[in-house]
Structure formats: structure tokens, C-alpha cells
Model the fold of this input.
Amino acid sequence: MATAQITPDTDAILAEIFIAAPPARVFEAIADPKQRSSWWGLKGNFHVTASTSDLRPGGKWSHDGVGPTGQKFHMEGEYLEVDPPRLLVHTRIADFVGNFNTIVRWELEPHDVHGLHTGGSHRVGTGTLVRVRHSGFAGHFDQAQSHQTGWDASMHWLKAYVETGETWETRSGK
Done:
């Protein structure tokens, strides 16, 4: 289950989810522009039409996309820290939120998944605890609220993409 909450100072959204896949696979899904474009969005709501990425500190990334009424949107930023498969930090400026700069910090922590059987527990695979801190919302409480909802959905989308291959085109509902 994903959680997404606004910090008491309303500056950041904290989100987390467990994904039943190794950190390297999850990192690939968030860092590779083709994969990001596949999972981030919802049919009839919005989706990415073009994405670029220069995955290195100081490298730039961007998304161009289409919203529910056909309006175009643009997001971009710069990578601040790149440490696969455990950490990715980047700035984010989106034209649909007033072009103020925020920072997204992805932390991926490996976790073994255990199952139970009559003789006790046994290891059944590797998973990843994904933690996101999206900060820079001080003075923009309406955007913090909107992004809290967005991160809740995005974490579910990422999980479904990594675990089952679900894309924005095949997804229904949340």
C-alpha cells in the first residue's frame, strides 16, 4: 500500500511504497525516459508524449505531454545526485504548477521478502522500499495538496508497471 502525506511545515510530500522487485529494476523504471513515459499517466487524464534524460549529476531531463482536454504540458529539471540503484535526486519545474522549482528525492532500499510454510519462514525474493520526498512547496499549499494526491497515484502506477507491466494505456481507475 502506498502512503503519501504532506509534512507539517507543508513544504514537502513524503511518499512510500513496497515493490516486489529488486532496486535495480525499480531504479531503471524511474530513470529510463522510455519506461517513465510508459507508467506515468492515466488514460483519459494525462500522459507523456516525449521524454529525454541525461542521467548524470548536472544532466537535464524533460517530459512533454498531453492533459485531459488535449492541453500540452512541459516538465523539466536537472539531476543533482545519481547513485544507482539506491538514490536519484533531481529538480523539477512544471508549467502546470506555476513554474516554481521543487526537488524530488527517490530513495530505494532493498528488502528481502519472506513467506511462511510449515517449517518456518523462507526467503521468496527481493523487494524494494521506495521513499520519495518532493520538497519546495512552502507558500504553495494548494500545490502540496494536489501533489500529495498525485504521488499516491504515481506510486501505485510505478508498482503496477514494475510488478505486472501495466502502462498508462492499459490501466483503469487509479
